[in-house]
């Protein structure tokens, strides 16, 4: 359990969890990689470091922590990042042509719409202040929950915030509700014991699968597909190691992030982990494209993106299966 300390520090430690040590910079081809400081996205980096998968592929990996997916894709647009790990709420960016999806990581069940104790249902959010990190899975589950209740974003007072600010604002009761995820919700629960969970990913599964994805800068895919395959081979090895050595993967990730072990373990156990063989099969049989097309439909319905690209134009299926 977290000890009582400054909320901003606690939230920052979990939302940013910026480790002081990056991946080992061995001699090899440079690869800059963004990741979110949580189990699904950081575990593959931690495993690759521990098992020296970067060295095996001749890569000099430089991993940088980000608070969310959209910021990673902004960095790609600026040319400072080659690869990243994003959640489903940021998939509209590849669907708009600003990056390529090069693989699926896992399926998540960590997102929630949470509310203060006096709010009983998602319908009660009408007119209320709701904090959300825009373009994230928290944003997505909020929109799905509202739609199920016959509401839309225009029916609430949407307050865009970064993840750590959501924790602080909810804990100080400056907002009535939030679209956010574990492990940040663990921090909130410690401060707001009567907090309620109104909506969860499981409410929409399997019709909607909240996938985490690996993405790459457009120019890297076009100009250096060999680098992309090397990166994907590292990720595939890490995915398989994570399944075969699940408990150790939690320990590696906890150490890498400097995060509380219990919280990392809780998030890890909320994921549906997929092997590289499963993901090859899901790519070849069109499952991944169907997942992505499902998000395209939601992006259009919610007014996020008017004309998304077809999945086959932004998912690099052949690169993934050939790696």
UniProtKB/TrEMBL annotation:
Xref: InterPro entries: ABC_SsuA_sub-bd (IPR010067), SsuA/THI5 (IPR015168)
UniProt keywords, alphabetically: Signal, Transport
SUPFAM superfamilies reported in the protein's UniProt record: Periplasmic binding protein-like II
Annotated signal sequence range: 1-26
Main location: periplasm
Compartment(s): Periplasm
CC per GO annotation: membrane; periplasmic space
Cytoplasm recorded as keyword: no
Keyword Transport among UniProt keywords: yes
GO MF term (any one): ATPase-coupled transmembrane transporter activity
Every SsuA/THI5-like domain range: 40-245
Family: Belongs to the bacterial solute-binding protein SsuA/TauA family.
Family matches, as NCBIfam families: SsuA_fam
Protein name according to UniProt: Aliphatic sulfonate ABC transporter substrate-binding protein
Species lineage: Bacteria, Pseudomonadati, Pseudomonadota, Alphaproteobacteria, Acetobacterales
């Amino acid at each position: 359990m977290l000890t009582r300390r400054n909320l901003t520090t606690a939230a920052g430690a979990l939302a940013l969890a910026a480790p002081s040590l990056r991946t080992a910079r061995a001699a090899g081809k440079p690869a800059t990689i963004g990741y979110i400081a949580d189990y699904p996205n950081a575990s593959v980096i931690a495993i690759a470091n521990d098992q020296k998968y970067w060295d095996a592929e001749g890569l000099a990996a430089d991993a940088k922590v980000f608070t969310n997916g959209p910021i990673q894709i902004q960095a790609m647009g600026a040319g400072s990042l080659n690869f990243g790990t994003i959640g489903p709420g940021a998939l509209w960016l590849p669907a708009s042509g600003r990056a390529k999806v090069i693989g699926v990581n896992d399926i998540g069940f960590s997102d929630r719409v949470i509310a203060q104790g006096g709010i009983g249902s998602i319908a009660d959010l009408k007119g209320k202040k709701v904090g959300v990190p825009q373009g994230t899975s928290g944003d997505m589950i909020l929109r799905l929950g509202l739609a199920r209740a016959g509401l839309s974003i225009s029916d609430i007072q949407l307050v865009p915030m970064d993840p750590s600010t959501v924790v602080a604002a909810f804990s100080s009761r400056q907002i009535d509700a939030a679209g956010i995820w574990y492990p940040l919700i663990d921090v909130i629960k410690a401060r707001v014991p009567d907090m309620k969970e109104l909506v969860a990913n499981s409410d929409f599964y399997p019709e909607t699968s909240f996938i985490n994805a690996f993405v790459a800068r457009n120019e890297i895919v076009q100009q250096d597909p060999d680098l992309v395959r090397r990166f994907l081979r590292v990720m595939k090895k890490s995915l398989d190691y994570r399944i075969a050595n699940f408990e150790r993967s939690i320990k590696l990730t906890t150490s890498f992030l400097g995060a509380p072990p219990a919280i990392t373990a809780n998030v890890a156990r909320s994921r549906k982990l997929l092997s590289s063989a499963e993901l090859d099969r899901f790519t070849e049989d069109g499952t991944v494209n169907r997942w992505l097309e499902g998000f395209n439909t939601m992006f259009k319905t919610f007014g996020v993106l008017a004309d998304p690209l077809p999945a086959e134009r932004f998912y690099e299926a052949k690169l993934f299966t050939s790696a």
